[in-house]
Design brief:
single chain, 264 residues, alpha/beta, Metallo-beta-lactamase, Chain A, six-stranded mixed sheet, 33% helix, 25% strand
Length: 264
C-alpha cells in the first residue's frame, strides 16, 4: 500500500491511498489536485469524506462527473449529499479486496465529523485519516461542538495503538508547536520535535504523517491529564477547574486566540 500526500489550496493535504491497482481518496477538496496521482492501470475506487467543509469535499462533484459509479463513504449529514455509503461509529467494512476500514465518529469540529482507520490484509500497520479532528501537535477548532465532544473524540483517537500512523488533512504542525512551546517551554519532546519540523519545513517538506505515540508526547491536546500541562494552564487561568473538559476547553480557546489565522 502506498499513501500519497497531494497538496491542495494553501495547506490542505488530500490523501490518496494506492492499494494494488486501486485508488482511494480521502477528502478531495480539489478534483485536479486529487487526480494528479492517476496513471494508466490505476483504477479510481472510492472517496472517503470526513466532514462537509468545502476544502474537504469541494472536488467531489467533478470526480463523480468523471466516475459516476464511484462510492462515496461518509457520515450521515445533509450537507454531504454525495455520500452514497453512510457509515456509523465503529462500523467496519471491506473498502476493497484486502482493505479493511473502521469508522470512528469524532464530533466537535463539526457535529458529524468522521475519522477512518485503515488496514491492508498484507500489513498489520494501521493508518488513521482524521480530517480536522487531530492535527500534528494540535486539533481542529470547535465549530459545532464543545469541550465534551472534543474529549470524547480525542479519547477515541488517543486509545489507538501507539504505532498507528496519523494522517491529518492540514499541514499546521509548525504553528501548533509554537503554541505548545509557549505553554510548555521546558518540554524536551516538544522542543526536539520543533527542531525536526523546522528543518522539514525549510525544505518545503511535509511533517506528515505522524503517529499516535508521537502525538501523545508532543500534542498538548492529548495531554489533558498531564500534571505539568494542568499546572501551566492553571497558572495562566486562575480558578480553572482541573477536569479534562475544562482543560481541553481552555486549551482550545487559548489556541483560537494564539493562532487566529488557522480557521480549521
Amino acid at each position: 500500500m502506498i499513501i500519497h500526500a497531494l497538496p491542495a489550496f494553501s495547506d490542505n493535504v488530500i490523501w490518496a491511498i494506492e492499494h494494488e491497482d486501486r485508488l482511494y481518496w480521502v477528502d478531495p477538496g480539489d478534483a485536479q489536485a486529487a487526480a494528479a496521482v492517476l496513471r494508466p492501470g490505476l483504477q479510481a475506487c472510492a472517496i472517503l469524506l470526513t466532514h462537509h467543509h468545502a476544502d474537504h469535499c469541494g472536488g467531489v462533484p467533478e470526480l463523480l462527473a468523471r466516475w459516476p459509479q464511484l462510492p462515496v463513504y461518509g457520515p450521515a449529514d445533509e450537507r454531504l449529499p454525495w455520500v452514497s455509503e453512510v457509515l456509523q461509529h465503529d462500523q467496519r467494512i471491506e473498502a476493497g479486496p484486502g482493505l479493511s476500514l473502521r469508522a470512528i465518529a469524532c464530533p466537535g469540529h463539526t457535529r458529524s465529523h468522521m475519522s477512518y482507520l485503515l488496514r491492508s490484509a498484507e500489513d498489520e500497520q494501521e493508518h488513521l485519516f482524521c480530517g480536522d479532528t487531530l492535527f500534528s501537535a494540535g486539533c481542529g477548532r470547535l465549530f459545532e461542538g464543545d469541550a465534551s465532544d472534543l474529549l470524547l473524540s480525542l479519547s477515541r483517537l488517543r486509545a489507538l495503538p501507539a504505532s498507528c500512523r496519523v494522517y491529518p488533512a492540514h499541514e499546521y504542525t509548525a504553528a501548533n508547536l509554537s503554541f505548545a512551546r509557549a505553554l510548555l517551554p521546558q518540554d524536551r519532546a516538544i522542543a526536539d520535535y520543533t527542531d525536526f519540523v523546522t528543518s522539514r519545513r525549510k525544505l518545503d517538506q511535509y511533517t506528515l504523517p505522524s503517529s499516535i505515540v508521537l502525538e501523545k508526547a508532543v500534542n498538548v491536546f492529548l495531554r489533558w491529564d498531564d500534571p505539568l500541562l494542568i499546572e501551566a494552564l492553571c497558572d495562566r487561568h486562575h480558578g480553572l477547574t482541573r477536569d479534562p473538559r475544562s482543560i481541553l476547553g481552555q486549551l482550545r480557546r487559548d489556541k483560537d486566540v494564539y493562532v487566529a489565522r488557522d480557521l480549521d
